[in-house]
Amino acid sequence: MKLLAALLLVTGLTISPAQAALAAPDIPVANVQAHLNELQRIANANGGNRAHGRPGHKASVDYVKAKLDAAGYQTRIQTFTNSGATGYNLIADWPFGDASQVIMAGGHLDSVTRGPGINDNGSGSAGLLEVALTVARQNVRPAKHLRFGWWGAEELGLVGSTFYVNSLTSAQKSVIKAYVNFDMTGSPNPGYFVYSSSGQPSGSLAIEDLLEAGFAAKGVPTELTSVGGRSDHAAFARAGIPTGGTFSGAEVRKTAAQAQKWGGQANVAFDRCYHQACDTSGNINVTSLDRHTDVIAYALYSLIGA
Ligand code: DPN
Ligand code: CA
Ligand code: ZN
Questions:
Q1: 154 is known as an active-site residue
Q2: Which has more pLDDT, 23 or 25?
Q3: 20 falls in which pLDDT band (50, 70, 90)?
Q4: CATH superfamily to which 2-304 belongs
Q5: Between β-strands 193-195 and 176-182, what pairing exists: parallel, antiparallel or unpaired?
């Protein structure tokens, strides 16, 4: 418990959530799964995918946006053009907290054309959405300003996130104090990876430590991984913004030592359906989805000073 909350408790004062330091919430994984089922339904209704330039991507954006709008977020859709098609980033601001200290969290909402992209990256997208909705439900009044991004055209080379960062003035970049990325969190043969801060902007080590502490609080061992230019934090890192993230693994195979530590199958890919048609709502390990999503909440509540 944070000191303020403890003091108020012992002095017998009644306190509202807006005044107390909130413990990080336990995000109900069933709510995250419900979002994934919607993304699967959207893919089914739109030719089997949610890819850039295809109607399933825009329908995904509209689904997430409607939930956020109803919860009180200030949302906007930023458009860009790539490969002759319009792309979409969805940006959502929780309209409270010090605007000169912005904490950002994001992930990509587009899939590859081969399949519905439920683990890659419905999982991170749905987890971020449910954490955002939890902030609204709890009516959190954070010290810092919270902003979410759901990026388009990641699968074509980090296009949407790069477009967003390039669209910011240097003043707008300098107020962003952290960016945390969630791309693949429900891998069927899961790992519990935290992005390595090595080679990342100064300030990234604190984010790495925080994400590790979030898993440690749940008794889950972690490993560091160097994601490099393989996901959307890269554009933020290039702009000098401290970054981090979590990841449950893609095409690489789980080692025997990792299977000892995390369970699952040794010598099998973390996600055998990576970028395949079989990346459906059946391609999700619910325990992994639950743990990674709870860590999103743990890290964000701490970073924003909730
Ligand atoms: N960027 C992911 C993809 O969309 O294909 C895969 C990935 C995520 C790879 C994180 C490494 C680390
Ligand atoms: Ca949970
Ligand atoms: Zn991908």
A1: yes
A2: 25
A3: low
A4: Zn peptidases (3.40.630.10)
A5: unpaired
